[in-house]
């Protein structure tokens, strides 16, 4: 029996997850009845047990009422807004051997780590599209793209952006404090799979092999005071129901424990990449919708992200269901926006519409694209005041 | 088994009882017995804490009950901290129900002084159970300070008006990382059941028992209310059904899949 109010205390997620053994969880979820799904749909505040019913096979017949509820909650909490951001790849150097990733160290591909000049060039192009939210990405190659490299990059582009997020290798708490100090307000760390055995199999070498260190990275960022923390599983690796459950559990843990931070969840489905990795599990569009809506019902305030990994058609259809953040104009190769990149992509994107194109689509859906919803003044008062005096 | 765990200590009963306002210590003792409670709170100002012969204390069986001294009457953090230290110096276990109520009319808890006192007492090794208004952000600050529970009020103390702060208590329960004990305002066993059905971990009751015509019978009734509410919560309450939607305007696109 899962208690709906477990005492989490000061535990990090690697402690919490041990209270939810996978076999028992799967058994409970597969035993959920349609009546439990209906109850979950009617709950004023769906709890973890309701969430289990909503991600269960029994809920597959209830996607429309789930979508209705998800949309209603999302509009109530976020209004008619879709927040836009774009990724910028700084480096595809990597010492890890993640079997599903195009940057896998064993892949013989052209490698690049952008110079500060190249970073600024990319950043200006992204800025000119209208973006003020940017996501910086690297692989894990501590000698070529380390904390100091990131800090230098952040400081170089900071004047151009109001919000800088990172999706890089996991850091220790002091590393997160260092990048926050430099101007980072958001972090994304995908666990890829919450199944430790599968994780070990998919990460044969490199620092990323350490499952627990990665699992607790969002906790360390929360401790360091990161404003936005995002989690997700790479869908197509582990069992769908299991990954959906632990992703929800993880986000819920972070929201409770680091209550000043906004938690977000992404739904990345695996895409073709160099190395030719085939998905181990097929996650259908219907399952993706089910996971999205269930997540919204569990976490009414969470940011829910859908990237250009998905097709234009699917993104347009999912936009009204509870998504709050979307990327646009994406390129997954370092230097890709300047079109002078020699390095290859992490994976192939699926929706290649321009930022203006996305803006028009969002408007056509009766929604408003939000390009700026944060200001560096929150993090650095002195700079903001100095800018006012200067300007 | 479904147990309540506070600061690593396990309790079978989810009903806590206060000892004020009873017509006699004998009536109080009968109510404690009938309630089957394990945690009994006593106002430090009402008892002679270092005297085992104290009339009220001698009616509380230390083998059956954890004595939870409270700082009722304290008007600020300094007074509350002083009372807590006094209780510990007298040999009580370092558990303290923190109450700071400068307003003598509604006895509403002072959030600023309560947080100040909680930070000091946690540092001094106390297990702190703070009485608070149903303020979710204050609850988070207190959890972060290391409090063992949060005890939001359902209605002003002694009013028997039930759970008037329902929406905020629901938020506190949803977000809590420590047990939530609904304290104050519960006037009937149905109120206690309602708190437990909402997912509260325990309730604390005093006035409703003390002023009942038969306190012991009322205590037994509250015990049943708490038990029923908890069992209903664990069983998964049937919720009010929303109307089903016949058409599928939002997910119709999925039919084109596969």
Describe the protein in words.
The complex is a heterodimer of chains A (391) and B (258). Chain A has 391 residues and is α/β, with parallel strands linked by helices. Chain A has one domain (13-390): Aldolase class I (TIM Barrel, Alpha-Beta Barrel). Chain A contains 16 helices and 9 strands. Chain A has an 8-stranded parallel β-barrel with strand order 1-2-3-4-5-6-7-8, surrounded by 4 helices. In chain A, helix 6 links the parallel strand 1 (81-89) and strand 2. Chain A is globular, with a radius of gyration of 20 Å. The termini of chain A are far apart. Chain B has a single domain, classed as TIM Barrel. Chain B is of the alpha/beta class. Chain B is built from 8 helices and 10 strands. Chain B has helices at 25-35, 77-89, 111-123, 136-145, 166-175, 189-197, 207-210, 215-235, and strands at 4-6, 9-11, 15-18, 39-43, 66-70, 95-98, 127-132, 151-152, 181-183, 202-205. The A-B interface holds A 1, 3-5, 7-9, 36, 38-39, 41-45, 47, 49, 63-65, 67-69, 71, 255-257, 259, 284-286, 289, 313-314, 317, 320-321 and B 2, 5, 140, 170, 173-180, 199, 201, 233-234, 236-242, 244-245, 247-251, 253-254, 257-258.
Identify the strand order in the major beta sheet of chain B. 5-4-3-10-9
Reported for the largest beta sheet of chain B, the result is: 5 strands, parallel
In the CATH classification, which architecture of chain A applies? Answer: Alpha-Beta Barrel
Low-confidence stretches of chain A: 1-8, 384-388
Q: What is the CATH architecture descriptor of chain B? A: Alpha-Beta Barrel
Q: Largest interface, by Cβ-Cβ below 8 angstroms: which chains and how many residues each?
A: A-B, 37 and 34 residues
> Percent helix among the residues of chain A?
40-55%
CATH class of chain A: Alpha Beta
How many alpha or pi helices of chain A?
A: 16
Structural class of chain A: alpha/beta
Give the end-to-end Cα distance of chain A, rounded to a whole number of Å.
Answer: 61 Å
What strand line-up does the widest sheet of chain A have?
1-2-3-4-5-6-7-8
Task: List the helices and strands of chain B in order.
Answer: EEEHEEHEHEHEHEHEHH
Q: What percent of the residues of chain B sit in helical stretches (DSSP H or I)?
A: 25-40%
Shape of chain B: globular
Number of helices of chain B: 8
The CATH topology annotation of chain A reads as TIM Barrel
CATH class of chain B: Alpha Beta
The oligomerization state is heterodimer
Q: Mind telling me the C-alpha Rg of chain B?
A: 20 Å
């Amino acid at each position: 029996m899962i208690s709906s109010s477990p005492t989490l205390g000061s535990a990090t997620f690697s402690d919490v997850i041990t209270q939810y053994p996978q076999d028992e969880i799967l058994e409970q979820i597969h035993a959920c009845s349609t009546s439990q799904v209906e109850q979950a749909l009617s709950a004023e505040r769906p709890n973890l047990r309701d969430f289990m019913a909503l991600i269960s096979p029994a809920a597959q017949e209830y996607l429309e009422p789930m979508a209705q509820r998800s949309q209603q909650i999302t509009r109530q909490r976020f209004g008619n807004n879709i927040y836009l951001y774009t990724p910028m790849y700084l480096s595809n150097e990597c010492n890890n051997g993640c079997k599903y990733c195009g940057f896998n160290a064993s892949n013989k591909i052209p490698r690049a780590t952008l110079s500060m000049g190249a970073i600024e060039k990319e950043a200006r192009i992204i800025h000119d599209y209208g973006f003020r939210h940017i996501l910086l990405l690297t692989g894990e190659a501590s000698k070529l793209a380390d904390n100091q490299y990131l800090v230098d990059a952040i400081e170089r582009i900071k004047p151009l952006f109001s919000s800088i997020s990172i999706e890089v290798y996991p850091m220790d708490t002091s590393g997160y404090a260092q990048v926050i100090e430099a101007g980072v307000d958001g972090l994304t760390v995908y666990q890829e799979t919450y199944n430790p055995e599968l994780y070990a199999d998919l990460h044969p070498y490199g620092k990323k092999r350490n499952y627990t260190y990665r699992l607790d990275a969002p906790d360390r960022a929360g401790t360091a005071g990161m404003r936005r923390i995002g989690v997700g599983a790479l869908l197509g690796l582990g069992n769908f129901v299991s990954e959906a459950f632990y992703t929800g559990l993880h986000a819920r843990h972070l929201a409770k424990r680091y209550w000043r931070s906004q938690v977000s969840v992404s739904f990345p489905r695996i895409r073709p990449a160099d190395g030719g990795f085939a998905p181990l599990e097929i996650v259908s569009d219907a399952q993706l919708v089910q996971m999205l809506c269930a997540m919204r019902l569990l976490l009414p305030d969470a940011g829910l992200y859908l990237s250009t990994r998905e097709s234009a058609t699917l993104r347009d259809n999912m936009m009204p269901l509870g998504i709050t953040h979307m990327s646009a104009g994406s390129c997954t190769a370092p230097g890709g926006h300047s079109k002078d990149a020699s390095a290859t992509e992490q994976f192939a994107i699926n929706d290649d519409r321009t930022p203006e194109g996305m803006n028009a689509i969002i408007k056509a859906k009766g929604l408003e694209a939000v390009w700026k919803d944060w200001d560096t003044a929150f993090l650095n008062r002195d700079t903001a005041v100095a800018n006012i005096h200067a300007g | 088994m479904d147990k309540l765990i506070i600061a690593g200590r396990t309790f079978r009963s989810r009903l806590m009882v206060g000892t004020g306002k009873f017509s006699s210590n004998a009536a109080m003792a009968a109510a404690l017995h009938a309630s089957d409670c394990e945690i009994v709170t006593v106002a430090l100002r009402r008892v002679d804490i270092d005297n085992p012969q104290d009339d009220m204390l001698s009616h509380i069986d230390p083998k059956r009950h954890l004595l939870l001294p409270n700082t009722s009457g304290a008007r600020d953090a300094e007074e509350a901290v002083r009372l807590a230290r006094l209780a510990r110096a007298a040999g009580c276990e370092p558990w303290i129900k923190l109450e700071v109520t400068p307003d003598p009319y509604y006895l509403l808890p002072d959030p600023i002084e309560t947080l100040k006192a909680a930070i000091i007492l946690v540092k001094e090794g106390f297990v702190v159970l703070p009485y608070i208004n149903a303020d979710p952000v204050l609850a988070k600050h207190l959890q972060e300070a290391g409090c063992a529970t949060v005890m939001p009020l359902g209605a002003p103390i002694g009013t028997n008006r039930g759970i008037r702060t329902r929406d905020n208590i629901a938020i506190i329960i949803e977000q809590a990382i420590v047990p939530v004990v609904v304290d104050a305002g519960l006037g009937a066993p149905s109120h206690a059941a309602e708190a437990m059905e909402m997912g509260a971990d325990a309730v604390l009751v005093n006035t409703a028992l003390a002023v009942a015509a038969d306190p012991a019978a009322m205590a037994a009734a509250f015990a049943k209310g708490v038990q029923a509410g908890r069992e209903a919560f664990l069983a998964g309450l049937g919720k009010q059904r929303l109307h089903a939607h016949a058409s599928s305007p939002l997910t119709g696109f999925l039919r084109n899949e596969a």
